[in-house]
Amino acid sequence: MVRGKRKKEFDLPLKIALTETGISLFIQQKMGLSKFRMVDNTEDYGILMEVESPASLQQFLLADCVSKIEAANIDPLSSRSDIIDLAKLIVHSLLYRHFDAELLNRLLASESIVRWNRANPQSLIDEKAFQGSAFAGMRQLVREKAADVAKIRKLILDPLKLSIAGNDRFDGEEKRIQIFQIEKFMDISNSLLWYILLKFQADWNFKDLTLVIRSCLVEYLKKVQVSEYIALMIMELALDVEYRNIRKEASLANLGIDANSLPEGEALSGIIRSLRSKNSLVSVTWKIGGNSSSIGTERRLQVLLYDRNAAFREIRNGIDAVKTADVKKRSIYSFYREQEDGKTRGDLGLYYISYLEEACERVDIKFEYLVNQIPDTDITMISLSFIL
After folding, report:
1. What are the counts of helices (DSSP H) followed by strands (DSSP E) for the chain?
2. What is the pLDDT of residue 11?
3. Strand ordering across the sheet containing 380-387
4. DSSP designation for 6
C-alpha cells in the first residue's frame, strides 16, 4: 500500500465543477462561483483552487456537490503523491456514499422493516417518510440517544476488528488502515440508519440487522482496497505519457540525450518548464456520477487523461499489445523491480491495466478503458471507466 502522513492539502491547481445540488448550495450560502472551460472544451460552474483541503473536498463529494474534478497541465514527476492521494480520496468518497445508500436499501428490505411496515401502514419506515420536520426530529432523536448509538456501533464493529487483528496476511499498518476504513463507513452513515437500529435494537431478529451491516462492510472493505490499484495506474499512465513528451522535447532541443533515457537536473527542469508554457503537460479529469446525474450513471466514475503531444497510435498499440500479453504469469512486483532497474520505465501503466481488471473483477467493479484522439485536435485521451 502507498503510505504516509495524512495530507493536509493538495498542492495542485484544481477545477471543481459542481452538480446542480452543489450550485444551489453555494448560491444559498452566497458563496462565489466561477465559470471556466475544461480541457474537453466544455464550460462548467464551480470553484478554482490552487490548494484544496482533502477534508473539505471529501465533504463536497459525500454531499453529491461535485460533477468533475480537473487537474490541468500538471507535472506527474513532481506531483506524484498529490495525484495518488487525490485519486484515492475520490474513490474512497464515492464508495462511502454508495455504501450508505446500499446499506440503507438492504436494511429497508429486511424482515424487521418489512414486517413493521405491513403492521403499521400509517407510520411507514422508508426514505420518503422522513422529510422536512420529520427528518429534523429523527436527527434530534439520534443525537439524544448518542450513548445507545455508540453501543450499537461497537456491537457491530468489534467482531470485524477482531477478525482483522487476527489476520496474519496483513501487517500492522494494513490492519490499522482496514479498521479505520470500517469505522469511516459507519461514521458517514445517515441518520435513518441509526434511527432504524435504535428502534429495533430490542427486536427479536435485531441480530439479523447487524449481520446485514457486517456483510456490507466486508464487501465494501474489499472494494475500497481497489483504490490503490486505480490511483497507481492513473499515476503510471500519466508518467508514461510524460516520459514520452520529455524525450520528444529533449530530441527537439538537441540535448544529445539517448532516445531511451531521460534528462536530469536542470535540463529536465527546463524541459518541464517549456512543456508547461506550451500547455503541453498531462491533464487528468475525474467525471463523477451522483444522485443528480442521469439515470444509470449514479455509480459511474470516469478518469480521463489528456495530452497534446503523446503519440496516439503508439499508446493505443501499447495497450492493444497488453491485451494480448500473458501478464498473469508475472507478478506486479516483478514489473516494479524492472522499473527500478530501468528496464520498463514508463511502460508500467500499460501493464497495470491487466492487474486492475483482475482486481476489479474480484470485487464486482466494472472497468473499461480506451484510447482515443479528440476529433479535429491533437489531443490524445485515455479513458478509464468504473462502475463502483
Report:
1. 14, 8
2. 85
3. 34-37, 43-49, 14-18, 66-74, 282-288, 300-307, 380-387, 366-373
4. P
